[in-house]
Structure formats: C-alpha cells, structure tokens
UniProtKB/TrEMBL annotation, chains A, B:
The family this protein is said to belong to: Belongs to the acyl-CoA dehydrogenase family.
InterPro entries per record: Acyl-CoA_Oxase/DH_mid-dom, Acyl-CoA_Oxase/DH_mid-dom_sf, AcylCo_DH-like_C, AcylCo_DH/oxidase_C, AcylCoA_DH/ox_N, AcylCoA_DH/ox_N_sf, AcylCoA_DH/oxidase_NM_dom_sf, Diverse_Acyl-CoA_DH
Domain Acyl-CoA dehydrogenase/oxidase C-terminal: from-to ranges: 288-461
Domain Acyl-CoA dehydrogenase/oxidase N-terminal: 45-161
Ranges where the Acyl-CoA oxidase/dehydrogenase middle domain occurs: 167-278
Single annotated GO MF: flavin adenine dinucleotide binding
UniProt keyword terms in alphabetical order: FAD, Flavoprotein
Cofactor requirement: FAD
Superkingdom of origin: Bacteria
Protein name per Swiss-Prot or TrEMBL: Alkylation response protein AidB-like acyl-CoA dehydrogenase
Amino acid sequence: MSQASTGYVPPLEDMHFVIEQVLRAPQAWSHQGAHADLDAATAREILEAGAAFAVEVLAPLNGPADLEGCHWSPEAVRTPAGFPQAWRQFVDGGWPALACDPAVGGQGLPQLLDAALSEMLVSANHAWTMYAGLLHGAYEVLRHHASPALQQRYLPEVVSGRWLATMNLTEPQAGSDLGLLRSRAVPVDPAAPMASGAAVRVSGQKIFISGGDQDLTDNIVHLVLARLPEAAPGTRGLSLFLVPKCLPDGRRNAVHCDGIEKKMGLKGSATCQMRFEQAEGWLLGEPGGGLAAMFLMMNSARLHVGLQGLGHLEAASARARAYALERTQLRAPCRPPGAPEGPADVIAWHPAMRRVLLALQARTEGARVLAYWCAQLLDEQAQHPDATRRADAAELVGLLTPVVKAFLTDLGHRGADDALGVLGGYGYIHDYGIEQHVRDSRVARLYEGTNEIQAIDLVMRKLLGRPRGLTLLLEELERTAAACRADAALLDTGRVLQQQIDLLGAGVQALREARQADAEAPLRVADDVMDGVGHVMLAWAWARIDLAAGQPGVAPALAERKRLVARHGLEHLLDASAHRWQRVRQWARPLPWVPA
Amino acid sequence: MSQASTGYVPPLEDMHFVIEQVLRAPQAWSHQGAHADLDAATAREILEAGAAFAVEVLAPLNGPADLEGCHWSPEAVRTPAGFPQAWRQFVDGGWPALACDPAVGGQGLPQLLDAALSEMLVSANHAWTMYAGLLHGAYEVLRHHASPALQQRYLPEVVSGRWLATMNLTEPQAGSDLGLLRSRAVPVDPAAPMASGAAVRVSGQKIFISGGDQDLTDNIVHLVLARLPEAAPGTRGLSLFLVPKCLPDGRRNAVHCDGIEKKMGLKGSATCQMRFEQAEGWLLGEPGGGLAAMFLMMNSARLHVGLQGLGHLEAASARARAYALERTQLRAPCRPPGAPEGPADVIAWHPAMRRVLLALQARTEGARVLAYWCAQLLDEQAQHPDATRRADAAELVGLLTPVVKAFLTDLGHRGADDALGVLGGYGYIHDYGIEQHVRDSRVARLYEGTNEIQAIDLVMRKLLGRPRGLTLLLEELERTAAACRADAALLDTGRVLQQQIDLLGAGVQALREARQADAEAPLRVADDVMDGVGHVMLAWAWARIDLAAGQPGVAPALAERKRLVARHGLEHLLDASAHRWQRVRQWARPLPWVPA
C-alpha cells in the first residue's frame, strides 16, 4: 500500500465547503462582535495550520502509541513516546486557547473553528487528543465558578495549556448514577462560611479518570465531585472541588494514581484509578452546586465527543476509499465509462463495496454539517447581538447535543467498522490503521453519558420537556425543505426531507400520548427516537449540502461530487429508520422482564 | 464482580433443548447406521465432558493469552502460556477425532455434537480453537484426495491431532480472488506422470496462514494451493499440495515463517507469513483440481466459522446478562412484581437494557437452532440410509452454509458489541472479557470468504443457481408455519413466520427479474438478501423453539422461558429486515460510482 492510503489527509476542501457554503459562517461572524474581524481566508489559514500539526506531529505517533501504551508506576504515569513533545508544540502554537476569551489569554476564535480543529486532531490521534479534551470544560468551570483567587492562579495555566485538567466523577459504584457518589470533602476551617474558594480536604476513590496522571504537564488541575459533611443524599448533595496535583508551594498533594486500565483502545490515553487521601482543595461555586457546575460544560463536552465520532468516521472512510480505489480483486460486473480492462478490477467498482463506500461518504459529510452547525450555534449562543437569538441558539444546542453525542459516535464507530470490512483481512491488521479507529471510537459511545443515557435525555428532557427547542428545529427543517421546493432541481430532495419531518412530527406526537398513558413507554422507545431523529438530521444536512452545491462560487466538480453524495444519502440511507419510527408509534407494545 | 459473571458457563440446558426437543436428533440418529447406538444420555455426557474441558482448561487461558500474544523468532513461533499443554489434553481426550470415521481412528460421532463442542470451545477461547480449526478440512481433503501412501503417513496423525494442519491459500495480491495466486510447484521428476502423490518442489509466499507455525505439535501438515508448470491462468490452473513442516526422514522442510501479524484480536492465534523455498511436497488429487478439493472442505469449514459467531454471541450475551442482573444504577421506571426497592435498581430492569438483553438472548437461541440444524443436515447428507434424503440434505446445506457463515458471524460480532454496551465503561476494560469477544469475533466476518462474498454466493449460486435447495427450504418453512397454525396457542407465531416466508418468496422473484434485466442488479442487493434470509431463518428457528416448548417432557419453567424469548424475537426483532427486502424489490435503483 502506498503512503497516501495509510496516512491521514485532512479533508480541508470538505471542511471549507461546510463552513463557507453550507453554514455561511463568515457572514455570521461579521455580525458577532468577537469575530467581526475574522474572514474566510483567515479561517482557512488557521485550519491549514491545524491540519499541518495533525498530519506532521500527531498522525505519526498514533499507531506506535497504540502498540506502546502508557506506563504506570506508583510514582508516575509515562505516556507513549512523543506525546509530551507534541503537547509542548501544541501549547507553543497557542492551540489550547483557540476559542478562549482574549481577556484571559485566549484567541477568541469561534467554537466552529475549534470544532473543525478537533475533528482533525481526533482523526490523526484520538488518544493524544484525550489529554487536551478536558481543557474546554475546565476553562468554563473555572471562569464561572472559581473564586477570583483561584481564577488568578489556575485560569491562565489552563487557558495556555501549560497545565492540564481532569474531571473526577465516576466511582466504582457510581457510573451513570452520580447520586451514588461517596467521595467526601471536609472543610479545613469548620467555623468559616462554606463559600466558593473555601479550603477543604478531599478523600475518595475515582475510576476511569482520563489523564488522571500524565507526563505532559508539570501540574494537573483535578475537578472533583464530592460531598461536604451533612450534604443531602443523591445528586443534590454533590459539590465541585479543585484539587491540584501540585500545591502552590510546590508540594505534591495527596492525590495518587493507583493504576491504569487495560482497555480495548485509546491505549495512549492513561485511564487512571485515582485516590484522594485528605488531599488539599477548594470549593468551586456553591455547596451542592456540583452537578449544575458540571452541566455548564456538558454541551461543549458532548459536542466534542460527537466530533470524535466524526473524526473516526472521516479518517476510516478515507482510508477505506483510498484502499478500494487501489486494490484489485476479481472482475466487477460493470466498469465506469472509459475504465481500463485488466485481469481484475479495483474493488471500489464492485457493487458491494460501492454501497459501503458511498454510505460512509454520505454519512461523513452529513455528520460534519450537523456537528459544525451545533458548534456554530454555540457561537451564536455566546456572541449573537440579539438576546432572543442567543436564547434560541441555546435551546437548539440543548436539543441537538444528545443527538450529536450519541448518533455521531454510533455512526463513527459503526462506520469505522464498515470501513474495516472494505479492507477484508487487511482491515484486521494493525499496520493498516483501520482496526485502531474501530477500537478507539468505541469508547465515545460509552463515556460522557452513555448513548442510552443520551437517548433518554433527548426524549424526556428535550423533546417532551422543552417544546421551544423542537419548535425551533422544526422551523429550520421546514425552511430547508421550502428552499428545496423552490428549486426545480431539488424537488426530490425537498420531498424526502419533508417525509422525514413528518416522521419526526408523528413520532413526537406518539411520545406525548405515550407519556400520558404509561410512564415507561417513552423510555422503551428512546433508542428508536434517537436513531430516527439522527436520520432526520442527516436528511436535513444532505438537503443543506444539495442547496449549497448550487450556490455561485462552488467549483463545478466539487458541486457535482457534493450533490452525488448527498443525493445518494437521501435516496438510499434513510429507509433504515422507518421501522424505528414505527416502533415509536407502537410504544404500547409491552417489553418482558429479562429471564435470569 | 463475582466470578460467575466473568467466567464462561456453558449453556448445556439450552444446547440439550435444541438437540433433543427442537431438532429431535436422537430420533434421527436411530435411523443413521453410524449413530444408531447413540442416545440422548450419551450425547449429554459427551457434551458435559466437553464443557468441563472448555471451562477448566480453555477459559482460564483466554484473557491472559490475549495480553501475552504469540512470540515470533526466525526459528519458531511460541504460542501463549498454557496453549501447548491444553492441546495435549485435548488430544489425550480424543476430542480432535470426535466426528471422524472410526475406520481411520475417529470416534464416528455426529457433526451435530461436534458443532455443539465447537460452540463451547470458541466461547471459552477462540484463539486456541483456531489451531484445531483446520483439522476437519484437512481430514476431508486427505481422505478424498491423498494417495494411499500419503493417507497412511498423514491421516492417523491428523485424525488424532498429534499433527496439526494449515490451509495455505492467500497471497498478498490474492485474497478473495484466488485466480491471482502465483505460488509454483515443480515436479521432482519431469518425466513421471503428474498424478496424485507425485513429488514436487513448492515455492511461493503466503499470508494470513493461521497456525503456519506453532509449538503445539511436532509437525505441521501444510495444504498449499499453487500452480504446476504451464498451468492454466485463473482458478482452473490451481492444484493442491501437501507440504509438511518436517519431512518423513526427520529433516526440516524449506518452509519458513517470516513473521506473524499484529491483529485486532485472536492474539493467541499465530497468523503467519509463510515462505516456501522449493519445499518438498506431494500433489493431492488431480492437477488443476485444487479448487475442487478446497470446495470439499468449504461447507464444513464455513459452518464452523458460523459457530464461532454463535460462540461469541452466547458468551458475550451471558456475561452481559449476569452483569445487568447484579449491577445497580438509577431507579427503573417499573420493577418486576415483588422486586425489592432500593436506592438504585439492577440495570436489567431498565427498559433500554431489557431491550438489548432480550434481543441478544433471542438471537442467540435462534442462531443456535440454525447452526445446529445445518450440522444435523451434514450428518443426514453423510449418513441417511435414503439416497434422496442424502441429496436433499446436501442441497439444503449448500443453501444454508453462506447464511450460517455470514449472518451468524454478523450477529456474533454485533451482538458482542451490544453486550459490551450493557457494561458501559466497564465493557471497554479488558478484565471484563467482553471487549475481547468483540475483537476476536470480528475476523469471522472476514475470513473463509468475506461476508460480502457469502452474500454473492447465496444470491448468485444458491438462490438463483440451484432452485432445488430453495424448494426444499420453503417446504421446511411451510411445514413449520403449518404446525404453528395447527396449534391455537401458536397462531401469532405461524402468522409472523408466514409473513417472512412471503417476503422471501417475493424477494427471490424480484431477484429473478433483476437478473433478466441487469446483470449487476442482484449483486447490488446481495447484502440485503443475506440479511433478509437470515431473518427468515431466525423466524423459523423461533417458531421451532415455540413448537418444541409445547412438547411433553419439557420442564414448565424451561418451556416458559423458551416461549418468552422466542416470541420476543418474533414480535420485536424482525421489523429491521423489512426495508432490506424492500430494497431487493427496488433492485432497479442505480448505484453511483465512488468519487475519487
């Protein structure tokens, strides 16, 4: 195999097309104070520089780090060869601060560009990207909840990436159910009022802590969920604390990494078992406000997990396509016009492979539009001059976040697995890189709230709980369908999208009836709703691509390719969700208990 | 977690139910000369002994071998700790010869029991089982194609398992396309007639050779596809040769293992790059008869790959069920009658998990009926006193083999992945065993003919090429549906099965039209046909289970559990194939070329 088919090639042209033509982001930036000076050319330069970092620095480390893994000793965790150096280059390039506020040392660029950067980093090296993954969340939490003294000490270090952060939530008995957490925090001065910044001693065991220890940065800022004395049971009794690995006076804090997990993938990312032994820390925000503080970072964190799905889908699909366009096996029943005849044809011409490759490409491009739109809405939520638009964007982000997290990580992992199949036996071999995408992408369906939890969030809190988000989404969907209907060349596209809108409407109606009749019923079909809504959003994304391809300024060859792929998706890839919506409408069907 | 939820527990009760109640195999044995002395009690004893071997010897080696992997040096491959000892125990127990002819040292037991044994071995340790995997094929090839002298020298060693065998097909440029093979065989005596047993020198490179070198046996019998001088191009020019690792006079042959692959899974199984440098060997069968000799072992080999899918599906599902019945997280919206209340409920009560677990259980039990029936038909093909029944059985086996291979390995791998999700983050951790099932099961969809190749075989050669097999299958399906209709309690079951039969009939009719109109059309929907036929066979299997549960002699609790699971499958798990059949009926839809 040639180098081109095993290496990562950032899809810059596709990314620019989504940002500039589909989402028309440069026009939006001109209305957003913080981004008014940003233009399309500058955005392209930034992404090209990010692409160079991903290709030159991160991608070469990816396969070797998977084989090497992380090294644990009671004193320290050592990450794979090259990881610390790559981190220093990332920091020196100012990348961690891309979307942070210039007031605290950030570059103030849109979340949209940060999303595109994240896609490339994950495509090139998901394991390495895990270390950076919690910076966004830590930044938000510190900005909104840390006392001024803590902000002064920690925020510049986190924004710059000189120190990394972790999120210490999970305990052995408490995964999806944070109400069962047992870690404790005791005030240093029981007489002092328990306010943000108060000093505490934190004790407890945490598991599955990404980057709980590492050798990329000198210090690590642990954000820890724990209970103050006499806190309420359940999630209301949780508070959030900042517990650094190294204390301001240079001493090591009583924070220990007792081991790292042997995992299916992400072997370059240290997943740590942590033990806090009366470790010194400080309260962030109000007592009992731990979960609320966590939720602050949730939308952005879940969007980034969705981008991990996209990153794997893109990289694995591109590898499979490159392989299939080179590898010759058997004669194809038909050849493209003018194609040469030989003893065997490239497998990309065989119908079974064409199906897989076209589906991968259509899903990748649709997923990218959806994920980037969500990032654009985060910018709108933060930056739009009109408060109503900001509030509307927030509602849409709330509704879309579980879909982006769950549906895109499902697409990413399953797509990587389909891509593996294109390589046949070679797909099973480490050197070809695809099997690592399959293993690495699997965890994104599990962490940051399992995809089953996302489906419950979508159904119970978003579709049934907050009608405003759905109204806004339906408006956007209808607007897109109307735009298609207004163009004689896009009548089929508009018709297919309208069918999807109708399925969504009928599905939500069925859910409302279900909730009245039977509290469990919406939960029995939550997974179907997620898949159905995901397909509605793919249909919308393909329609937006089809619309954008017809705009002036799009090169004819690019426009033709975009139309072909989007219309393939609209025609061939939506039927799989019809029976899911049917199940939603049949919510009354009982579900037996599992026999022991 | 308790030991019970991480260890393998052979599903003996389920296996006995299929063999005795669903397939009524003991009644069939009484009509088959070779098995007339076998009764249900003896069969149970054999399977219990096999289960003990799987649990006590193989299962404990599985996880450690995955972490250790195989060790390569230019001189030899070393398998993981315990593998050679386990092989010796297997040989001492007489297991390799279970289904071989007593005339050559075998035990003459039914393929059906060998299939049940295989399921357990794979559930316990797929990697180890790979070394034994080619004995069946080598046995068949040697019996039918080896010269008497070669038979005398090699057959007893292979039947006993004292020597293991390999199948050397794939070359770097020739995977699915064996016509591209380049390995060469040159007669030692160019003047002698080129007949079975003739001495040759074999040269060439082979890849992906399971057990190409290993330290389980003193000698290895390589079966090698290569071309004699002036052989025809393509597959017609391929001949089969026996090339031993050690020659009869004790010298090492010029057979070299140049390396082993780093793979996604099956790390305890050495996947070897082989080099033959004028290695000494002998022709098996006729010149140019290589592919025909290979086909002899194909049905049995592909059935065994299908059993690998079943083995993983069973083991991963059982682990997930055990975990879900122990692990408590969050309150479930409803509890089973009389269940205790606590701060959190077992996750097996949560609707999202119930769905997954019930689906896994239903698919496992359906898949077992299908795979075991195929093994029973192999026995019928070999042993039935009536020649017509033997021929009919062969036709059915031919039709079912690609379905068992592809559909069951898809179910196995995807099911293992679903089971992983039940464990949430723990599913991603090696210690819990499920992620290894996901990795190990993946390759079964790729080797022994990729599942895409199986789908083409099913559509082109079996459904469109040999109408007799389909006629016989439809008769069996109709017979089962009629039996359901004859029982007032099974009317729904009969109705659902009839719907599936009608989908199959309409689908095949569409394929026949497609072939007339457009040579490529059946290939565009082959994957859909495979999925559709697989679901028809699951419906049939669940109907057979539902019928069997009502038979006298089935314990009431077992009957109730069997009915619940089978009916859940019939009611909830067939809708996913409706759109696949719809695509088959819409075969005329064009499929674009993949954009570069």
